[in-house]
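hey so i finally got around to running both of the ones u sent me last week. sorry it took forever, my laptop kept dying halfway thru and i had to restart like 3 times lol. anyway pasting them below in the order u listed, first the sequence line then the structure token line for each. didnt double check formatting much so if smth looks off just lmk and ill redo it

first one:
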Amino acid sequence: MINSLKKIKKGMFMGYIRNIIRSLKNRLFSNSLRAIEVNSLLLGKINTRQIVNIKKLNSLKEAEFRVFSQWGDDGIIQYLINKIPIINHTFVEFGVEDYTESNTRYLLMNDNWKGLVIDGSYSNICNIKSSYYYWMYDLTAVCSFIDTDNINNTLLDNGFKGDIGILSIDIDGNDYWVWKAISVISPCIVICEFNSVFGDQHSITVPYNPSFQRTEEHYSNLYFGASLTALKELASEKGYSFIGANSSSVNAYFIKSDLLQYLDIDHFDIDYYSSKCRESRDRDGNLTFLSGASRIKEISKKSVINLSNNELVLLKNIM
């Protein structure tokens, strides 16, 4: 009996020690990460000062730099918000995962904008809410799997309506349909991911499916979203003009057409080029590094909506 009690006490003591060690490791990691991010923010500020002094761009890619964005979008955004008069310094971004990489986090922390971020993963939202920056800035994080039926109510329920500064859409699926459905906010700038695998000759998008999940729709992860042409046509319908894309050919940029006068860019419409990103997977989830025409061949039997006539067609019959 005495030996058993000793073992229990020893086990409790060792568990206590392990918890302390784990807590110290987490705190050290958190402090190290925060120190790295502080340094990144300082470098971002230096880059921002340089790009805002550029009077004329040949293309958006000349303004690119990265702090928290996956690509060079932090720089593009800084250039645009310093050239375009934006009264309401607010943003909405959905499809942010845990917000480690995003288009608006640098905007939140460098420019102190107010924002709403949305993701379909509860754990991702919990990670955001437990971060040091969540209490430091005016950020609202909401767990919701966005579709055309709930997007407007989600925005209104969280106090976002009317004029805002930026809307960033990256949900790897129904991007076209959700942007089309949004009616309660009027952003000055819209950033929307497009699927360069779909090319630039056709206005096409994946059929609307409220439960669309990229990997489940096709193991390759290549079947999602809409072509750049489709987004440009939708933008025009909504009163926006296409001004270019990032150099990775992933995110397209649109601004309200009456704001074009504030930008001095030689080419508002870039020559189309396919992204170099090689993220394709096999059936077991392993990277296959497909590029060029081999990517469209991989998903050639999947169907898309041809928006020119609203017909459902196989990719192999239109590409």
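and the second one:
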Amino acid sequence: MNNELRHGLNAVAFLFMEEKRMVTQIQAAEYYLSLYLADAIYVWGMNAPDIITREKILETYERYHTTKYDREYYEDKLVEGYGHIGSDCSGAHHGISGYDDTAQGYYNQSIAKGNTKEMSKDKVIPLYRGKATNKIEHTGVYIPGFGMFHMKSSAENAVLETFDKNYFKYFGYADFINYSSKNFVLREHYDLWTAVLQHELNKSYNCGLEVDGIFGSKTLEATTSIGYLRKGSKGKFVLMLQNFLNSIYGDVLVPDADFGKATREQVMRFQKNCGLEADGIVGHDTWLAIKKRIKL
């Protein structure tokens, strides 16, 4: 994990801003995840890595305001996000693309395009939403092992969600990502997985964890807040569990945040391999086994 993630996530977006240049898939994944972990705020017209200040909000208002995005909107965003990274959906790409464009513009610049039903799931790939390929209105990015990141809306801000090919219908290989570089593989970056876990524990249960990507005793203790994950459980922690199991055993599960029969079977497989009672229920002992696995 880079130092920016350990010591001030708001600074990480400045890494790639010097000029338009290609980044590796690993750098791209770290960048987009850092925006999520930094609780980036959706502000119409802003580009990451802009930090929300009164001056920046006024500047953005003067340039991009509309009837919908009026003075009151920008004043509210100043109150909501002062000191945070501010960005709209296409602005999130700006931090590593090195150039400013719309969602449609980034799609047009793609070096290869297609429908997400046929998209490779082993690469970091920008995603696009619209009624047609010439009517793109929203963009995000697919990150293997995590799902889809996007600056979703003014109401929801930065989100990390289960990949949905019906929400983002199109993809395009970015001209600013080097696809000859090593693919992002979750098992080689468990620190990022742990950082997201810590972030989600803080958001859901106010655990007060330092989001440092280190699965220590405090993080293990905080997992008790989740309760037991078992067949029938749903939600972001089930999704994280599914992604973790996929990183070990290959793509054996559909990461849908739904703890069904297949997830139970893979949990039991993991428990058996770790010398635990294979009951298919994820509690303290299974989280401890995950902690030990991550330290390998």
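quick thing i noticed on the 2nd:
The chain has two domains: 3-178, 186-294.
anyway thats it, ttyl
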